[in-house]
Structures are given as C-alpha cells and as structure tokens.
Amino acid sequence: MDINYELYKVFFHVASTLSFSEASKLLFISQSAVSQSIKTLERKLDQTLFIRSTKRVQLTPEGEILLRHIEPAMHLIQRGEAQLLDAATTGGQIRIGASDTICRYFLVPYLERFHRSFPNAHIKVINQTSVKCAELLENGQVDLIVVNYPNTSLSNVSAIHSIKTFHDVFIAGSAFKNLKDEKFTLKELSHYPILMLDKNSTTNEFLHRLFQQHQLDLVPEIELTSNDLLIDLARIGLGIAFLPDYCIAGNMTGLFIVDTKEELPERELVIAYNEQMPLSKAVQEFLSYFAP
C-alpha cells in the first residue's frame, strides 16, 4: 500500500498528543490540514483511527495498533536525522582499512591528529592485509585505505595517491652473524631460511616477483600475517625476515640488516578511495593530511 510518509507523521503527532491543535503547532501546519490528513489516512486504511469529541481525542483500538508500529519507526527516523545533523558539525564517521603494520608504524600519528581535531567523530579501523583492504574499499565497507603499492587488487580503484616511499629489507639476528657487514646476492640468500608475510600480502607478491625476475625459486621457511612476529622470530634465530623498513625503526635490538648486492626496488604507501562516492567531512579532513 502506497501511503505518503507525511500522513503517518501527522498521525504520530496527533496520537502522541491526543490533540489536533497541538499536532498542528508541532507540525507548523493548520489544524484543518491536520484533520484532512487524518481523514485521508483513515480512508486509505479503511479504518477509523480516532474517536473525536468536543472535549478530547481518543485512539480507537485500530489506532493503538497502528501507533505501536509507527512510534518506533518515527523514533528511528528522528535518531537518523539527529545523527546526520550531528555529523555535519562533528565530522561524523570515518572508516579506514589498513594492515596492522601500517596502523602501528605509520597511521597512529595521523589518527591522533584527526581525533584532536574531531574528538566526537567515530573512527573505525579495519585491519586487513593490503590485498584484502582493496576488497573492503571496492565493497564499500570502508571510506579509504592505506596500503602498500604496487598492489594488483587496486586496478578498479579510481583515486590512488602516494604518501610515502620505502624500501624492503632483510634482517637477521646473532644466529646469522656471519652475514653481517657483507653483501649477498638473492641467490645466496635463497639458501637460508626466509621468513616473510603470507600469500595474502603485497610484500609476499613483491618478493616472489623479485626472485622470479632473477630466475630464482623462493620457498619461504615460514609465512605469517604479522611483521612484528617476523621480527621476533628473526631475533631468536629462526631465519632471515623480509619486511618494509618503516616497521624496524627503534626495533633492531639484537638484529642487523642483511645487505644485498641487487638493489631492491622502491615501493610506496598509498592512500586510496572511491571518487565516485560522496566523501564525508571526516574523510575529506583526513585526506587533507596527505595533500602534496
């Protein structure tokens, strides 16, 4: 049944106040307009909703049934409107997709800055690999993502901006001290146990592609989802870990960088979002932190 929302709105105010005159004041319309709306609604529903007398207005049993359904719906609509109005002043909500490593070693200062500027805005961070983050963005589950690049999953993303360049490094602990202060080829390193992120990461894709370019097979000893855990395992001597250099600053106690004869290609951190979707005030503010 196609009934105008305004008719239910009038009904709700009359039923809540049990007064046509009070409802007209709340709705900023004439009392006759209120009466006409109720008559129209009753005609469309083929039910009498109010018992009218000179002294009072009373709901019929049918009117009470309708109110039980209309009242929670009206409150939901009012709450939604209030949240939208609040979002216009506080910045609303921002949903960010990023890996644990990027959040910890790169995003925290920006999140802190944003929180200070918009203390009432809701920040939602979803931790996934850079590959999975691209899926979150494509499905509309996040407003923006901060990910490692190149990233083959970003082919359908319309806006990608570089915000930081970095290099990947091999690190090892004292168990491999014979590698310290020397340079080794990737072929030589392939004979050592390699610790790296799992197949759902761009870092894994990058290292496998790098080895393939040098006609080498890469068979990792261990694949994990955490760079921090890779650092811990390298420190206790389980192998040589491969990871971005931005996550080892201040975390190299008992570790050293294993230099390679081949120069490893530079990679980037990028921020990506969908230009076809409207951006909230919160998202626009956050993106401004990375403007060139």
Automatic annotation (TrEMBL):
Record family assignment: Belongs to the LysR transcriptional regulatory family.
InterPro entries: LysR_HTH_N (IPR000847), LysR_subst-bd (IPR005119), WH-like_DNA-bd_sf (IPR036388), WH_DNA-bd_sf (IPR036390)
Pfam families in the record: HTH_1, LysR_substrate
Gene3D superfamilies according to UniProt: 3.40.190.290, Winged helix-like DNA-binding domain superfamily/Winged helix DNA-binding domain (1.10.10.10)
Protein name: LysR family transcriptional regulator
Keywords: DNA-binding, Transcription, Transcription regulation
Domain HTH lysR-type: 1-60
SUPFAM superfamilies for this protein: Periplasmic binding protein-like II (SSF53850), Winged helix' DNA-binding domain (SSF46785)
